[in-house]
Design goal:
Blueprint (H helix, E strand, L loop, with lengths): L2 H26 L2 H16 L9 H23 L32 H11 L1 H7 L4 H12 L4 H8 L3 H15 L3 H5 L3 H17 L2 H7 E9 L10 E4 L1 H10 L1 H4 L2 E6 L2 E6 L7 E8 L2 E8 L2 H6 L2 E2 L4
Length: 308
């Protein structure tokens, strides 16, 4: 390959880089991993005769999807878990989703730009995507988020088109709750109470927290949620409210979501699930909070994005 050919290939690849990063990020939930997948895609492009690639954009998308799928499967086999601070830390003391091209992505994979990107995709959606199998996630992301035909998605997965449709359908049911279902029963009231608790936590408003908590509220945190590494319990509105105030910064990275069919709170900086607050409310007051950070317990939760 001449230098001119090499330069031309690099220029052509750069035209698709933003799209490839968008696909890889939504599949992997990590900008660092997404950049690795894009780099691997570039290396694979340089190892083939690009003149024989009829549709470069489609070819690159297929390759980055396959690379990402392999990374997802490898991650699942190793049971990798994100690391970082938990919300709340003080318990032991007192999407817009773009079209096929996706949005332009930050130039660097720094934490701040990744947080901005996670917000643009929808943190709650990224969290729920993490509960899918690699095949379900790929089928949903490629078809529902990037409008890639099922025939092409099936080719990436090595499955039939019918089987791929079923994967996407199953993922869709797990990711999104039908609006009618979300409005049924006690969910609107649960959402109101959870939103009030989260807003008061973010603002460090002790009186507002006490107002939304039952006087006999009990908070239980598993060992993984506590710096000391031992389960902890807080009792009473004042103690629980003070713990939430001490963790106001983490509340800023938390969002509402459905947790096993009821409204709860997920702490997921950059879309990586670390802690779930399962809330039990009664008569517009929170009577119990279960702080879940143990990876095995998190994996068993049924999470879904709340509809607008």
């Amino acid at each position: 390959m001449t230098k001119a050919d090499s330069d031309g290939l690099a220029a052509a690849f750069e035209e698709h880089r933003a799209h490839l990063r968008a696909v890889a990020y939504r599949l992997l939930g990590s900008m660092t991993d997404a950049d690795d997948a894009v780099q691997d895609t570039w290396l694979r492009l340089t190892s083939v005769d690009a003149s024989e690639v009829a549709n470069l954009g489609g070819w690159l998308t297929t390759v980055v999807a396959r690379v990402s799928l392999n990374m997802l499967r490898s991650r699942r086999r190793r049971h990798e878990e994100p690391v970082g601070d938990y919300w709340p830390r003080a318990v032991n003391g007192a999407a817009t989703i773009g079209g096929i091209g996706g949005a332009d992505l930050p130039a660097l994979a720094d934490p701040e730009s990744e947080a901005v990107l996670a917000d643009s995709v929808g943190v709650a959606l990224l969290v729920v995507l993490d509960t899918l199998t690699p095949a379900e996630r790929l089928a949903f992301v490629l078809h529902d988020m990037f409008a890639i035909p099922f025939t092409e998605v099936a080719a990436v997965l090595g499955r039939s088109t019918a089987a791929t449709r079923q994967l996407a359908s199953r993922a869709r049911r797990r990711v999104r709750v039908p609006p009618g279902q979300a409005l049924a029963g006690d969910l609107p009231r649960q959402r109101e109470v959870a939103a009030a608790f989260l807003a008061a936590s973010r603002g460090g408003d002790l009186s507002a927290l006490v107002a939304v908590l039952d006087s006999d509220v009990i908070l239980r945190a598993d060992a993984a949620a506590v710096p000391a590494g031992k389960p902890a319990v807080l009792r009473g509105a004042d103690a629980v409210a003070r713990g939430a105030v001490a963790s106001a910064d983490r509340a800023g990275h938390s969002q509402l979501a459905l947790v096993d069919g009821t409204v709860g709170i997920v702490f997921a900086p950059c879309g990586r699930l670390q802690v779930v607050l399962a809330l039990t409310s009664r008569a517009r007051r929170i009577v119990a909070i279960d702080v879940i950070a143990d990876p095995d317990r998190l994996r068993r939760l049924e999470l879904a994005v709340l509809p607008d």
